[in-house]
Each structure stands twice: as C-alpha cells, then as structure tokens.
Amino acid sequence: MGIIIYHNPECGTSRNTLGLIRNADIEPQIIEYLNCPPTRALLVDLIGRMNIARRDLLREKGTPFSESGLGTWTIRQ
C-alpha cells in the first residue's frame, strides 16, 4: 500500500512532511487538495481510518478559525 499525502505546497508543515516521506526513500502520491478538494464521503472515510474526532482534523493555527466562531460549533455525526 502506497502513501498518499493531501498536500498544500504553500504550507511549511505540508512541505516538511513531504520532505520526511521522501527522505525515507518513498515517493508518495501527492494530491493538492486546494486544487482537487476531497468529497465529503472521502473525508468521512479518512477521518474514520485515522480514528480521530472530526474536530481534531480542523486546523486552528494560521487560519480564520477564531474569528469565525467555529470553536463554539457542535459537529453533527
């Protein structure tokens, strides 16, 4: 099974992660998610496979998260 990275080339964390994967002599499949956004079904599948809460997937740092009031929302199952 290969590695897939949902990548944003403008994001330092994403670039660093891609570099770590490549330093392990692995060439992942790269999906630039801003150009090819995942479907809701794919996001639900990925979150389930990661075994994390949906809220844990949200990035807060460097985003308009705080200003939008998203921190007060409840996520429906």
UniProtKB/TrEMBL annotation:
Keyword Oxidoreductase tagged: yes
Signal sequence region: none
EC number(s) per entry: 1.20.4.1
A GO molecular-function descriptor: arsenate reductase (glutaredoxin) activity
Catalytic class of the enzyme: oxidoreductase
Transmembrane domains' residue ranges: none
UniProt xrefs under InterPro entries: Arsenate_reductase-like (IPR006660), Thioredoxin-like_sf (IPR036249)
Any GO BP: response to arsenic-containing substance
Keywords: Arsenical resistance, Oxidoreductase, Plasmid
Keyword Acyltransferase: no
SUPFAM superfamilies: Thioredoxin-like (SSF52833)
PROSITE patterns in alphabetical order: ARSC
Family classification: Belongs to the ArsC family.
Protein name (Swiss-Prot/TrEMBL): Arsenate reductase
Underlying gene: arsC
